[in-house]
Amino acid sequence: MVLGKEMIIRGFVHSEEDVVLNGEMEGDLNIENYRLTIGPHGRVAANVRAREVYISGALTGDVTTRGIVIEEGALFKGKVEIIADTEVAREVKSGE
């Protein structure tokens, strides 16, 4: 799913595919088995659960992921919790 730089989303987003954000998003984003890419024009104020997070733009919020890349010049403000694959599987089974 690709969100263009003119798009604005507010609320909860759950996706069963990779997400590329070039616009603005505010709320919660759950794509725990997929990759989130925040493009250079992307502005995200959200709590994020994703398999991988790649930031070229700006992200404000807490991130739970297995891996994160923050490009030079990108902005990140929040906390990051790195979890192992086994933790993700356990959380999904327990309904968290």
> Unreliable runs, pLDDT <50, ≥5 residues?
none
Q: Which structural class is indicated by helix and strand composition?
A: mainly beta
Count of β-strands: 9
Mean pLDDT: 91
Helix percent band: 10-25%
Helix and strand pattern:
EEEEEEEEEH
The fraction of residues in strands falls at: over 45%
- Tally of individual helices: 1
Q: Radius of gyration, Cα only, in angstroms?
A: 12 Å
Tell me, what's the shape? globular
Distance between the termini: 24 Å
Biggest sheet record:
9 strands, parallel
- For the record, the count of structural domains works out to 1
What features would you describe in this structure?
There is one protein chain. The chain is mostly beta strands and 96 residues long. It has one domain (2-89). It contains one helix and nine strands. Strands 1, 2, 3, 4, 5, 6, 7, 8 and 9 form a nine-stranded parallel β-sheet that branches. It starts with a strand and ends with a helix. The mean pLDDT is 91.
Q: Which terms summarize this structure?
A:
9-stranded parallel beta sheet, globular, 1 helix, 96 residues
Give the gist of this structure.
Helices cover 10% and strands 59% of the residues. With 96 residues, the chain is mainly beta.
Blueprint (SSEs and pairs):
Blueprint: E1 2-3, E2 8-14, E3 19-21, E4 24-38, E5 43-55, E6 58-60, E7 63-70, E8 75-77, E9 80-82, H1 85-94
